[in-house]
Amino acid sequence: MTDHSTSRAAVRAPALAALDAEERLTRAELEELQLQRLQQTVRHAYANVPLYTRKFDEAGVHPEDIRVLADIERLPFTTKADLRETYPFGMFAVPMSDVARIHASSGTTGRPTVVGYTRGDLDRWGALVARSLRAAGIRAGMKVHNAYGYGLFTGGLGAHAGIEALGATVIPVSGGQTARQVQLIRDFEPDAILCTPSYLLTIADAMVAQGIDPRSTSLKVAVLGAEPWTNEMRRELEQRMGIDALDIYGLSEVMGPGVGSECLEGKDGPHIWEDHFLPEVIDAESGAALPDGELGELVFTSLTKEAFPVIRYRTRDLTRLLPGTARPAMRRMEKVTGRNDDMIIVRGVNLFPTQIEELVLGIEQLTPHFILELTKEGRMDALTVRIERHPDLPVDTCRAAAEVLAQRIKVFVGSTVAVRLEEPGALPRSEGKYKRVYDLR
Ligand code: DLL
């Protein structure tokens, strides 16, 4: 096999010297910085975005009322609906001549959400993705295969700028054309790959189909995000590919990839880069702030954005805030359970695709290739898990495993589901964000 120049040990070398000054702040210093930046952001948004002026006035709150961090709770929330209402550029807080780039989220329903960046915003974004990649063990001089999609989606260009800012070599492949991805990984020998977790699974499968052992490539690290994935999926990918797999979180409305990212030392959920984003977790129904550690909807206020400041933006992502570990002053978020909108309700029981993923990957005789189908049986909702059988195991073994899955879903989630075995390759493969749920009702 090829002698790969950078070993996995080098990737694991201590990173302390490489930390940004902000990553080394004490909690008190960080909160002081946050307050100063929060006050600045609130003033900027109020003065330059009519929607914020109106909403603050309606709520009877003025930028001067923000005296301590907890005063943030006096500010109104911002929602996706606010962004739709002001489509396309109504939330921009600087003249268009200062907007250096525009991105948009595809939006499964209705109009896309449009976001803008000044030159300074782009520089800060690049620096935060660079920080995220450094936390994952990637260093200047390494080669990074970027398979996030390029275009209006923030994944491709956002990751690209971060790789460059880090001083690593970027291989800008974008998503899709999986056979070519495999070829480029073999030929260019990248140290790291960036893509969605479901797409890395597709790439690993394509390697096997081409007779390549996924553990034999030059890849040592994968920085995966843009969709929910579980620790069980991490183990699956790490074992299959002989890599470390780290979680990177972000959303276009708040910036793009790199709002938070996992550290190699802990692999214990993304550290939120709190010097640029102030997180809160709220009760999704009442809107009440929840204490750290409790599960709820994640809300962000940007602290340094010029073109597109967001105040208490409701992400609809469900998670909880946890204390910092490898970066002690910056809190972590638990791996995202799912989006409010991904929640499936079957016969009164709420469930998230990640719960099924966890159970599927806990049964060795099953493959990770599954989708969820919702149908009507008479007046009742029915959920079917369609899952590909293991190509190397007897069909009876797979059938037994499928039955075990149905039982475990019943026990751990509380839903009665049908599990249907499919032939290997029968289900769609991911090329980016994977569509896991099909509502056929
Ligand atoms: O997906 C930004 C991104 C690109 C993040 C590449 C990481 C890597 P949007 O298209 O606006 O932006 O989608 C944002 O994707 O609200 C979450 O629901 C989900 N999401 C993103 N990262 C994660 C993650 C990008 N690490 C939406 N875990 C978010 C779970 C994630 N869900």
How would you sum up this structure in a few lines?
With 441 residues, the protein is α/β, with parallel strands linked by helices. The protein is 31% helix and 24% strand.
Topology readout:
Blueprint: H1 8-12, H2 27-48, H3 50-59, H4 80-85, E1 101-105, E2 113-117, H5 119-135, E3 143-146, H6 154-166, E4 169-172, H7 178-188, E5 192-195, H8 197-209, E6 221-225, H9 231-241, E7 244-251, E8 256-261, E9 271-272, E10 277-282, E11 296-302, E12 313-319, E13 321-322, E14 332-333, E15 338-339, E16 344-346, E17 349-351, H10 353-361, E18 366-377, E19 380-389, H11 395-412, E20 418-422, E21 437-439
Parallel strand pairs: 3-4, 3-5, 5-6, 6-7, 18-21, 19-20
Antiparallel strand pairs: 1-2, 7-8, 8-9, 10-11, 11-12, 12-15, 13-14, 16-17, 18-19
Helix pairs in contact: 2-3, 5-6, 7-8, 8-9
Bound molecules: 5'-O-[hydroxy(phenylacetyl)phosphoryl]adenosine.
